[in-house]
Amino acid sequence: MDHYELHLILDSMLDKLEEGIHVVDQKGLTLFYNVKMANFDCLDKKNVINVNIQDIKQFISKDKNHLLQTLQSGIPMLNMEQIFVRSNQRRLYTISSIFPIVKNEFVLGAIKITREKESLVQIHSSDLTKSPHHSMVTFKNIVGKNKELMNAINMAKKAAQTRSSVLIVGETGSGKEIFSQGIHNSSPRFSEAFIAENCAALPESLIEGILFGTTKGAFTGAIDRPGLFEVAHRGTLMLDELNALPLFLQAKLLRVIQEKSFRRIGDVHLKQVDVRFIGTINEPPAIAMKMGRLRPDLFYRLAVVIIYIPPLRERMEDIPLLIDHFIQKFNLILGLNVLGVSASVLEYMLSYKWPGNVRELESIIEGAFSIMDEKEQIIDIHHITYHIQLMNLSHSIEKDESTLSSIPLETEPAPISEDIEHLIKNALTRSQSLSLKEIEHMAILHVMHECKGNITSASKILGISRQNLQYKIKNLQYNSGLRREAKQLPLD
After folding, report:
1. Which of 105, 126, 144, 197 has the fewest CB atoms nearer than 10 Å to its CB?
2. Average pLDDT over the chain, rounded to an integer
3. Do 87 and 114 reside in the same domain of the chain?
4. Which residues pair with 225 in a beta bridge?
5. For residues 3 and 152, what is the distance between their CA atoms, to the nearest angstrom?
6. Residue 245's beta-bridge partner residues?
7. Are strands 77-85 and 378-379 parallel, antiparallel or unpaired?
């Protein structure tokens, strides 16, 4: 069988696949292009074979020529979502991945594989069974153009090409796991397992067994079970909130990183392991070490590369981009057609401090979607006001937890100030069924909103002490009946 016949057989086989396949050589010349991919691209197969992708207009304008990018960088591009609009206005949702074809460290070509999203749903269960620990996220999933964020991304991309351990520093909700997955998927380990574990979520009595694994007979009920070190072999293990890991386990983790070996609980035999470690912490390392939450020796061993992710309040210019991103995401999930946010919502979001960072913004957008009517296309202030107010109260209470805990619960609440009498009268005209306490809570919500969650400023306007206001806020937050009543009454 000569080369030409072999090529014909392979071409015929590819045409039978449900996935779209596009293979190019190192110069971008198309070698294989099956019928399914031609259907996705609305092109004639014969007009693509043996043609350079740079000479095909649709490829350049459609997806920024991702095949060419992979040829130049040698880095795979995974799980890229794309929407094709057919002549009948039907939308076709696809997911594509592009892999470099490498031999002896030289990129010889690239292959693009595209699947229709509906077909992914059918095979989802079996895929999870076969490969439950593969990451789906790349650096392309990070949304933003802030200079500090871009510096962090560039550093992470460089770190991905090394074998070094990485420490990612960032507040809760800032995107530490997305960075970790991006590092994994841009590294030579991208085809192996990515394991993420939150150290703060694991019971101290179980965490050692979860990490190291157990041997049958080691203790009552123990069975032979691999730990995360074994599951992540040849892949990447991300330990989130590393500063929550008990210090004695931090010492054991340090040894695993140094020696690349460990013992299961109850075992006498050493197991060799090849794992890339990524640790994340939600506070500055210096503070974590000073407060005794992070061992200095582990820090110096793990932090070969340190990546700092700026909080959302330090990159406010990215908020419009993030809003658009999450609107597109939930439009796709919920089948809606929301176009954007109103000017008042954007103004509010640009003035908010975002203690919960990107995760909080996503939650607010999702919450707005959940109460919008199908015909509504703009997220307006009434869709998010109550949600943001409660978050403001929650974050204020967390900030003042020590002060609040010193207030006796049996303390008699102080009367409200005469300065907000007009608010009470306004509420009474809307609902005669509300009690004075409920109207008081409405006034508190209103003033806290006006003060953007600042308890000190709000207490001055309300004419009560800071401690009394904290007491009232806690009473409001934990009394679900009053919260429901408050939600039904619009705020000025």
Report:
1. 105
2. 79
3. yes
4. 214
5. 47
6. none
7. unpaired
| 416 exposure class (CB count in 10 Å sphere: 0-12, 13-18, 19+) | buried
Instruction: Please tell me the distance from the alpha carbon of residue 76 to that of residue 113, in angstroms, as a whole number.
Output: 11
- Return the structure tokens found at 459: 């207490």
Task: Residue 469: name the closest of 398, 402, 416, 408 by CA.
Answer: 416
Number of residues in the chain: 492
165 and 76 share a domain? no
CB 230 within 8 A of CB 212: no
What are 389-400's pLDDT values in tens digits?
A: 676 566 555 555
> How far is the C-alpha of 240 from the C-alpha of 259, rounded, in Å?
22
SS3 content of the chain, % helix, strand, coil (to 5): 50, 15, 30
What's the pLDDT band for 477 if we cut at 50, 70, 90?
A: low
Please report the pLDDT score of residue 80 as a whole number. 76
Spatial neighbors of 74 by CB under 8 A, at least 6 apart, are 100, 102, 107
Tokens representing 115 are 């699947």
Q: Which domain holds residue 268?
A: 139-308
Give the distance, in angstroms, between the CA of residue 34 and the centroid of all CA atoms in the same chain: 35
Q: Give Cβ neighbours of residue 438 (< 8 Å, ≥ 6 apart).
A: 482, 485, 486
Among residues 90, 107, 130, which one ends one of the domains? Answer: 130
CATH of the domain at 251: 3.40.50.300
Number of domains in the chain: 3
**Tokens 């890229």 -> residue:** 80
Handedness of CA 297, 298, 301, 304 (dihedral sign): negative
